[in-house]
Amino acid sequence: MVSLVHSAGLTGIDGRIVTVECFFSGGLPRLDIVGLPDKAVSEAGERVRAAVKSAGFDWPVSRLTVNLAPADMRKEGPVYDLPILLAVLAASGQIDPLPENAVFLGELSLTGALRPVAGALAMAMAARAAGCRTVYLPAENAAEAAYAQGITVHPVASVGQLLAHLTHGAPLPEAGPPPAPDEPAEPLDFAHVLGQENVKRALEIAAAGGHNVLLSGPPGSGKSMLAKRFPSILPPLSEDERLEVIRIWSAVGRGAEAARMAGRPIRAPHHTTAPQALAGGSGPGGRLPLPGDMSLAHNGVLFLDEFPEFRRDTLETLRQPLEDHVVSISRVAGRVTYPARFQLIAAMNPCKCGWYGTPRCTCRPEAVQKYLSRLSGPLLDRIDLQVAVRPVSYEALAARGTQAEEPSARIRERVRAARARQAARFAGSGVRCNADIPAARMADFCPLDPAAQAMLAAAFDRLGLTARAYDRLLRVARTVADLDGADVISAAHLAEALSYRAVDRALPG
Fold first, then answer.
1. Nearest-angstrom CA–CA distance, 363 and 292
2. Which domains does the chain have, with CATH numbers?
3. pLDDT for 82-92, tens place per residue?
């Protein structure tokens, strides 16, 4: 007798339907699992055997062959424990055949309890796309799977509960609507930042246009404080953006956390981070690479403090994702492509001692140049705003408590107004924000008045801009004009955009 149970697997962040077939035949007792399983799948037999007995059923004393189809797709992880158990019970006649329009997935404990799995949202979306109407999965995965609208999600706590539902009609609850995001316990606000109006303005431009930022200044000037408050002025995630974030976080087993996340994701890896952690590295047991920090920051912020202290090969992994917004990783186990549309906020000291430009600096000029040269020209070319952060003035510190700083909510309103102008301009073009304007459409979306054209021609030769830096300069000027409510870029807008190339001018040559 052959039984069929529909399940799902994960390839990268994409779900795939998998059919679990169990053949019950005579012979010495044995369980064979075929269909390109990894080690975790091959070990499922022992977990399934214990869970069957814990649920009060008998383990067949016969030869069982379990096939995971399609056989040419690599099967990874313990997600197939539950469908294998159901296929064994159905093949041995202990339960009725399983419904064809239902998908089952989940890891089993030896007591029959279901444990959460990675990629639940992607697999629920794959089930919906395949025409299935119901998915049964561990209760801890229900919050993220609920985002796959159009399919009924049943959270399951144990095998016994599921079998009571399937064989005796004991109703299982349905997952409710997607949960509302948590409120931040202690919101970070620009109202807590004293002075630094020029840096706040630069971050407002970055938020309005989706631009990357590099903050350079001495210790204690507020670089990290400003960067941590940057998400507070970003527009909220749209429903499509939140779905993308949850899918990526779900692939590393953190989908429930992403579903509750307040605001946009922010990742802040330490400067000792390896390239594989930033871009994505191989999973346990030789599995396909998992998403790294760049993909976990998708639709959010990647904050790299002490920017020049990162390894050179780690920093260079940023170059292609900053341009193409995807990370493509090839390993022995296979090739995957993950989305990586993030805003880079980097912070650095201007020299090794941190006090370049002040009497406290002890660095020789060649040491300063050596320190700055850790950042390659191609990488800096991809950073739109390079801002010099000065120490907080005495006047600003003395006025603490007597002079109110502008709160994030007011800045965010201006950012949202600028984004609304961009949405109207880019309607139907596939462009999300000014930072994504393609080079071929630059003339259409970034018109300059005659004075701005003359200024740009002079700046191009004086600063030695590359074609990429030229385009990014125009995109920043476009955002400045949007914040000003102007349709045409003026000389004043361009001059402000030109002022944000501080590190470029400090590099050797």
1. 36
2. 2-168 (3.30.230.10), 190-431 (3.40.50.300)
3. 999 999 999 98
